[in-house]
Queue: 2 jobs
Job 1
Amino acid sequence: MMSPGHSNETHKRKRTSLACDPCRNRKVRCDGRRPCTTCAQIGTDCVYGSEAINKSKSDLILDVAIRSENLLQELFAQLAARRSPSQNPSAISPHAVISPGTVSNAYRGEGRPDHISNATLSPFHASTTESILSWPQFAEFGNLIKERGFSVFRLESTRVPLAHRPCMVQPYMPKQDVERTVRSFERGINFWYPTMPRTMTQELQTLIISGTFDDSLPSCLALLIMALGCACELVGFFARRETPNASEADSQRQKRLMGELYFDSAFKKIYLAQAGFTAEAVQCLFFTGLYFSFLQRPLQAWSFISAAATKCRLLLSYDVPEQTPEQLECLRRIFWSCYILESDFLAELAGLPQTGIAEIESSIPLPRDFCTQESENDQEQSSLYFLACISMRRLLNRVHDLLYARDAGVGFDNHQFPSVVSELAYQLDEWKDLLPFSFQFSVNLEPTRTEEGAFLRQRYLTCKSVIYRPYLTWALSNGDAVEKCPSIVYEGSKLCLEACWMHAQNLRNLPHTIMVDTWICSLSMASVILITLAASRVRPLRRLMSSSVLDIGPHLNELLTQWTHIPGGGTSPSVIESIGLIENVSTLLKITWNENGVGE
């Protein structure tokens, strides 16, 4: 994409292609080496053209990903060169807020495998909300945190299982209602995670209208898209913030009930997907995981997403003659969807076992042409949105791994992380600048053109706050003496805090957020309010705050409390715990503010 100020002459100038000609013709990823890894492996001459071909928007997004990987390769080499076996352990701040002790030898180049081409999350990384709760700044608030026993896994693992109804007749909707519900599925789930071809959606719609369900994968899949369609419609009511009258409220209750009935019927057939090894089986597992995300049951959602990812990886590992190109593309898209969702879960529950899909993601082609929407414009927007979400998740994984990997993250080393932060911040801004016009956003509180743009802005702000967090932990370690630290510490802390506050203030009733991310959002917002409280205890950082930070807690509590009531059938204990934590910290923040005054 070009800015309006670019001339045609600039656009037409010759430059070296970022992908070699063979990889470009095969439409596979090229790492830009000479020869590239793909050509070297298959024995093809690796040739680079002198004139860049006209690129689609998808190619442009891929080019940024490739450039980012090449820059990271150089960054790793620089870090390795700067480290030596005799490195002084005191190089790491002894007062670090989060300190692993010393940088692991594994990260110094002694035994760490080269996985830079894959964007992975390190197990037990130190950037979860639970890690923030262990910061020494909160030691004086024992009653607030420690006695609450905040353990996401413990809270969710002891939750009452989802109740299932006894055998009953299959749920039924009139043809007009079925068509509307399927459209809701297409514009919601199949827009955000475009994995089902429209031809298949229409076939399943015909099956639903006929009402002839049996013990088969198509019947299970049909029931699941109806359950998700009902959920999307229900979320839409709340996303519009409509105040329903008695008739509309009754309609919402009916929609919730129908969603439950369709899911209950589908779940009775899920054993077919667990035993099958087809694209349809993977789709059933994937959609079941998404519905559990809507129910705000993260462990169950992770379980089915992981099962879908594992089976998807298996099917992509073998050449199946019976598999059509459409089924292959479907599997690849489910792979990328699972990659996004699994990483989201691991970002807050770092101890969850991983399926390994992140370790091979660079070998899986990015989404290609695949018709999932009725209109051509919606089709293009869905594909671009999907690519934007994939590239952002890859960047987020690299941020977590480079800065916060246990025993290896350079975010713990004040002498190492500034150069890494600078490079990651550059890549983040490149990602933002490359977004298509409809998804572009300003980094403020102004409304965006589309809901998708608003969701991507939230992802951007999350990533920015995590990138600059090492500066904030450095500042918090020094307390009021932060003014004696290099000026970049104060500036980096300011960028981190502003991103946190803007992230919280921009939280809205976005359907994508409510449908899939309520649980994750509740934890990330708890992090925001905790970080704000910690910063309020440091006089130089307190100068960055305005009275608007006092409104963050009530704003978050109002939205999150509302979201807990949408699915029905019980609430997530960890979401409730997060809401309680946000409320208590918000009260402490007001006390701190009143005690210390404004702009002190």
Note: The mean pLDDT is 83.
Job 2
Amino acid sequence: MKKLVFLFSLFFLLTIHAQEKVLIKKTEITIPIGKKLILKPQIEENKIIGFEVTEEQNIIDKPDMMGILKNFEKDTAIDNSIDFTFCEAKMMNNSYFILKTIQKTGKKMTFKAKIRIKGSPLYSSTSIMPIGSNSLSFEQWQNNLDSIFLYDFELK
């Protein structure tokens, strides 16, 4: 009986760590590595109070960060969309884990984030720079990450 309970517990823990689903709970988003999301935020008095997923994609290849920067075209559209891509990327023969953000709310957006290193059950706080509207933002880490938790969104 103990072996059965142990095997079930082990299977349960592995399932939790192998999570590949995006989770959205009101104003909190958990994104597993290898996902691109386009969201439509619900805004109330410069606070984001909820999200609607308008598009979700799996990212299989490692995008080239220099190529993304080179090909980014800033526009003036304000459609209240937020584009998050959390994946492994490359830059000059080095691999990084990145959060690419493009938001088109017409205001500067701030939020907080926690990252989880592969194999760890805990999330650690990390810094995120404010993101201007219609701008491209990269946050990068060298650690082998498996998910990122985003919360406390504000528009200024």
Note: The longest strand covers residues 47-58.
